[in-house]
Write a structure and sequence with these properties.
This protein is an alpha/beta fold. The protein has 2 domains: about 55 residues, no CATH class; about 190 residues, no CATH class. It has 6 helices and 12 strands. Helix 2 packs antiparallel against helix 3. The longest helix has 16 residues. The chain is globular. It starts with 5 loop residues before the first strand and ends in a 9-residue tail after the last strand. The model has no long low-confidence stretch (mean pLDDT about 95). Bound molecules: pimeloyl-AMP and magnesium ion.
Amino acid sequence: MSSAPIYSIRMHATTGGDHLCGAERLSTSETLDGIAASLVRRALSHPRGSADALRLSVDRVEPEKVLRGRLLDVTTCAVADWRGGRNAARAFLVKAGVAAGAIDAAMTDLAAGAAPGGKNMRGAMLVDARSGLRLEPDPARGVRASRMDLSSEAEQRLRAELSPRNLDNPHVREAIVLAAKVAAAPGIVAELCWSDDPDYTAGYICTPLHGYLRFPHLKPAGEAIGGRAFFLQPQCDVAETIAFLEEAVVLFDEIGVFHPDRN
Ligand code: WAQ
Ligand code: MG
């Protein structure tokens, strides 16, 4: 993907008017139709249900607008269950400078469903890392990080690291890319995430200090509520952070270091 035109592809699917799933990729013209087909298939066979509406957006990006980046280092933190996972995640976030009250507020909202009515948000909540106040303009939609992907060489290298660890699945690959874009955004202190897919209990935090730190359990098995919190520096320029997350185009062409598991 050097001087050839690049396209941003975004998918968003709903069922009964509620957020079901979404995805964001970058592509050349040669692979665009195949990616579009795979995103349609994903929306129709999602573990939380089948989409009854989906939107695909394709936008050509000027090649000179594409920023290059490196993925975060990856570590798995062994935890016995989701309570242990949340306690460990909380301790690391405190070390990274997020106030304990802000973490608790975000975890409470994520566990209850952070969108109005206790539903999953389409994107992430923005949380002031000191006060814990929510700053996203629309609490149902949240803010989606978009317009990011791996180069095909970086994808091969990432999969070669993930595969022997039994981690080469789309949840992990996509979360590692998303977290790297979030960590690169102005005003971000840390991210907290766990999946909304009932059969996927793992989650992660990312901070400049810890990179991408994953926990095999951050929620109980069977729970179909999840989400993301992006913790922001107090008094940062929220509009600037949102503009970077939604609009900057970042192609990750280097992977991070994989560290041994920790307890
Ligand atoms: N930008 C902001 N928020 C998003 C985005 C995005 N691009 N994509 C998803 N979200 C929010 C949204 O509220 C979803 O409901 C929620 O995150 C969860 O999304 O290392 O699978 O795609 O083992 O279900 C993390 C652990 C897996 C991976 C995360 O998230 C690992 C996952 P999901
Ligand atoms: Mg999901």
